[in-house]
Structures
1.
Amino acid sequence: MTKKIEAIIREEALDAVKDALRAIGIVGMNVFEVRGHGRQGGIELSWRGTTYQMDLIPKMQVNIVLSDHNVEKAIETICNAARTGNTGDGIIFVYPVEDVIRIRTGERGREALSYPDDIDARRTPA
Ligand SMILES: Nc1ncnc2c1ncn2[C@@H]1O[C@H](COP(=O)(O)OP(=O)(O)OP(=O)(O)O)[C@@H](O)[C@H]1O
Ligand SMILES: [Mg+2]
């Protein structure tokens, strides 16, 4: 089974998350700039005695499609790299993925997701 991890993290955490994922052998990913809010519904900013509500806060969204036996390790890695302990550290969603097709080769599914030296290639058979 293939899964998609959608991790919404602080912009400042992106480099640390990317490096940590790379270090465990997560190769393919893409990143979006997003704006949103979680439980607090935004933050209050003040400027010269006036307060403003900023309800949609910029975050980075990191998308990773991977085999489901790598999902827990990827989640743990993202959490460790992105956590400050303060509100706004982010949230991770996990979805099932129906199929993957590499356009150039026509490879599908697991084949389309294997890269040289990725987390699966590094795995030593049990
Ligand atoms: N239910 C949701 N659906 C879609 N996107 C969401 C949802 N909840 C949060 N997000 C997105 O995830 C980001 C993470 O928000 P945030 O870190 O503030 O989460 P939280 O649930 O409020 O936790 P915390 O208490 O740590 O702040 C939001 O800015 C928003 O972009
Ligand atoms: Mg929040």
Note: The chain has one domain: 2-122.
2.
Amino acid sequence: MYQVIRNTKYDYIGQSYASLYPNLHKYPATMLPQIGIDILKEFDATKGSLLDPYCGSGSSFTSGLECGLTKMQGFDINPLAALICKVKFTKIPINELIERQQTFRNNVFEFLKNENNIFKLPRPQITNIDFWFSQDVINKLIIIKHFIDEIKNINIRNFF
Ligand SMILES: C[S@@+](CC[C@H](N)C(=O)[O-])C[C@H]1O[C@@H](n2cnc3c(N)ncnc32)[C@H](O)[C@@H]1O
């Protein structure tokens, strides 16, 4: 037999992920960083390393950072989760990002001026791609991917 004790401290009513930190990308079943912060504080975990073997989009790392931890490692079976974590915790000067975004938009704009340009780009070899996406969407994604691949700085490329 066990007894369930309700601690309203952990309700976090009215709070969301973004009430403390911006969420760069949608990810299912994210933990509120507020929960991690309170738990780490309870354990007085202000130094040492944090390992999250199912790290998802990295809410536990957000909590760790807030509590002063700097050595954090994670794994996730989903490559999107690993990418989100990498991008979220890599510092990029905001002016470089804005500049790169402008270049990106200009490149796409110029590219679209000639409707034959799309035929010069290779089609990705993805099984059943036509089942998931219309031809129009596939073409748009091919163009976006092409210009993302052109970004030399790996941190900025990952961000895009
Ligand atoms: C609820 S999320 C984790 C949330 C995360 N700990 C946080 O603080 O935000 C669960 C994650 O476990 C990952 N996962 C499931 N099976 C796994 C496995 N065998 N190895 C690594 N990650 C796995 C899923 O891809 C998912 O991202």
Note: Residues 8-88 form a domain with the Rossmann fold fold (CATH 3.40.50.150).
